Hints:
The complex is a heterotrimer. By secondary structure, chain B is α/β, with parallel strands linked by helices.
Amino acid sequence: MILLQQMLINNPIIKFYNSSIGKKIVMAVTGLMLIGFVVVHLLGNFQIFLGAEKFNAYAAFLKSIPGPLWAARIILLTAFILHFTTAFILSLNNKAARGGSYKNMATVQADFASRYMLESGVVIFIFIIIHLLHFTLGAIQPEFHDLDDGFMRDDVYRNVILGFSNGPYAYIYIVAMLFVGLHLKHAFWSMFQTIGVYSPALTPLLKKLSVFTAVAVAAGYISIPLSVIFGILK
Amino acid sequence: MNLDAKIPSGPLESKWTNHKFSSKLINPANKRKFSVIVVGTGLAGASASATLSELGYQVDTFCFHDSPRRAHSIAAQGGINAAKNYQNDGDSIHRLFYDTIKGGDFRAREANVYRLAEVSVNIIDQCVAQGVPFAREYGGQLANRSFGGAQVSRTFYARGQTGQQLLLGAYSALSKQIAAGAVRMHTRHEMLDLILVDGKARGIVTRNLVSGKLKTHMADVVVLATGGYSNVFYLSTNAKGCNVTATYRAHKRGAAFANPCYTQIHPTSIPPHGDKQAKLTLMSESLRNDGRIWVPKAVGDKRDANNIPEAERDYFLERKYPSYGNLAPRDIASRSAKEVCDEGRGVGPIGVGVYLDFRDSIKRLGHETIKQRYGNLLDMYRLITAENPYEEPMRIYPAPHYTMGGLWVDYNLMSTIPGLFVIGEANFSDHGANRLGASALMQGLADGYFVLPSTISNYLANEKLSKVPDDSPEALGVLREKQDEVNKLLAIKGKKSADVFHRELGKIMWDKCGMARNEQGLKEALKKIPELREEFWSNVSVSGSNEGLNQAIERAGRVADFLEYGELMCLDALTRTESCGGHFREESQTEEGEAKRDDQNFAFVSAWEYKGKNTAPVLHKEPLNFENVKLAERSYK
Amino acid sequence: MDFTLQVWRQDSPDKEGRFEVYRATNISSDMSFIEMLDSLNIELEQKGDTPVSYECDCLEGICGTCSLMINGRAHGPGACTTTCQLHMRSFQDGETIVIEPFRAKSFPVIKDLIVNRSAFDRIIQAGGFVTVRTGSAPDGNAIPISKIDADLAMDAAQCIGCGACVASCKNSSAMLFTAAKVSHLSYIPQGQPERMERAKKMIEQMDEEGFGACTNQAECEAVCPKGISIKFIARMNRDFIRSSF
């Protein structure tokens, strides 16, 4: 038992993870994977603007390659779980390190997004569950799930349109995407800083790119429910 | 009292090498049987602790700060001298030796100063190896600048934070040894007294500043590296905590105190703004290269500086010393500033200060050039005073800055108490009556890294020391005495804070034993100080208890020692009727008002022996023999 | 100028602390913050009350002894400054000033405004040095170092070890302090042999002391009296990754 413990303690990966910086690097790397997913997912979703035909075909194509799809899903899920649990552990450690709060604590230069990463993260986590129940599993609004588009394919297009036209889900989605943007605004450049990429020339650029990514991703995702609400997508 | 300096025989150049060779060594396996106490963790203390423990001695190091990195060496700005001759400008060990002897106005020992110059080159190497980020040239070589009026560029520097970087280097070496278990570090411990056993220094009593507990610590030798006593003036450029307690209490146990009247007053510090000032901030002397120093001609002229017409300004340095003008040496510039302020022509809110004006230089060279040359200094001035030195003249005033006097030590850095070694600013040995710029850092590290480790081994190898337990009768005796002293302070329950007494003492010292001294003033001071001391012991307010952290006790104890020490300083200044270096006796000056040395009668070190509470101390003289330099008058023509 | 001071008083580490309110009157705008507190203490002492305990020493912003959270900001308002170099003119006449100790689990309060920062010493002891014995050094110029590297090393080496970075970090992270020393020695050749080992050991010690992790908010950089950049944290992280695998 002690031997096993020793082995675990001396294992370089466990040692790495046990370190505060190691955990931050796990956050950065899993964060990068999640950002990758968010961007790819957005590009996929944009196909909805090409019409039901193209969009449903895209969905069908994904279903036709279960191997890569599930591989991606497992990797993504792992990254997500690591990202979330590590954030949780770090937050607990950080809270413990603080030891006593100030009567007054001024904020000098930390921006809003950076100060509420945990909060925005939790909102996104809750949203993801709703989102999966809604569109992937169909537990929410099951009546719009498993529709047939007349070509023996799932009518994902109608699922989206109906999902966003009925009930509060479009609004939940929009608000959640604002939080995604907020999260990304700090996350994007922060990721580079954590893995050690800093240069006086590059870092200001990364910070700008961070804002751009945040706005682009949030606006991109929000454009879909908005289009449904305003009747651009029918 | 035996003042044998134990200077090795032979030619100057080979004294140190021969001495090291003839010193007895201790077998490496035996070194761990010897224990050393080091008090203080400035450049000297930290470097000595690290080096002694590397050699194998058991080292216990004490400091009153929360960390050894806080000692006041950290505040030194300018640089550190070394006779490397990297600039090929004719520097050599002999030249550094000569400059230092001459700069000290021929009141230091030749052999000590030569050794200092000799090991200066090793110091730079050592610090570079530790990773001290000295300034570099583009080619990667170490950069130098000239400093303190030297004619060669031999000063190594790390921006304006040389002291910080050197201290952090020594602190890192010390940290390495602490981590290795070779040094036991006792932070937040203040040394209260020295313990003698059979006439030898064998331990100290400390007060744990957090718990308030007094404790004895015994060892084979004790090393004091506790710095200087500039704070006897209350206002100085020293840190708040700097004090004379360790050295003065060792003096009371039998260590001779040498040249207490040698103090250095730096001409360019930011003047005090009121009576609640806590310290004076130094501004680099280089400002005098382009700034003109003046005061209004009329007494009590309260107009804005810019409204005083040219004809009503007195550029007193240019007037009195036409050839040197604003670049007159430190002591002269300082004294002249004090004179005009005493006449009532001082400037600033409380009339203490003179103008240092860049107006004409800005006109001549342009705003940009001045900014390039002095930008960071002028910004610092602006931060502290909220005045814009580009638009109105700066105000400056002299400030006590360094003390050349200290416990008397022989060539081995051992005091008149066997087994008590004294290093760094705490001893008197290398700077004579005046210290050159960039030499203090050099001396502290020379003593700690190179000199002491060698001489201490010789002492230990020659002594038969039996082990003394922490609770030996001698140790417990001193411990009880100290406990009584603390209780006595607490029992007074007076009305006046120790800080206020300190200020009053500082004023006496500054007025009577500051930049210019005369018989009448010194006698007055010698009358006033005992009166103030008496008042202190009946009316000081020390609140709180002896348990737990109590800064009031710390302060009161230190002020109590300054109140005795000030008297010794005045006494020394009174007996030395010549002027030399930082000690200016108004009775001994040339027609031009310059210091006049009296080599016939005063080419000696004054070493004072403590004789008891109500008995006058006794002066012993160690004659200074100059075999390698010719005594010359310091001339500024 | 007159001020109302709300000062944290705590008798000892294990006792409960509380805020006490004091009046500081007749304060000159040219006084430093420490001088203002000194004059408060003299008043308290003359009355026989226990003076407020706080630390300061050099009073020129280099020793790192002074601390204090002043109105929620480490070393008070103003960039690149320490409490001892802060002047009362930075405050409004009549203002209420809240004075608290530097707080962190790893900086336990000793008394009033004095905290124990010895965790910093232990981080340095874990590896913040070059292992070289006195007397074993080659000639200073035998190790050429480019001016650029020497300057970068100096930028990092300026750290005064005051702990403002920890105090103002919501996670009480000591990353800036540790990174400054790791970076200082990583820029120069003398530091290379132990470079990876040093980063690893110092970070381990930093974690062991109970400091939090970095969330890249850069509050530390904003309050650092020497303006030390968080770029050194990135550099330390890089060394950490390299040292881990």
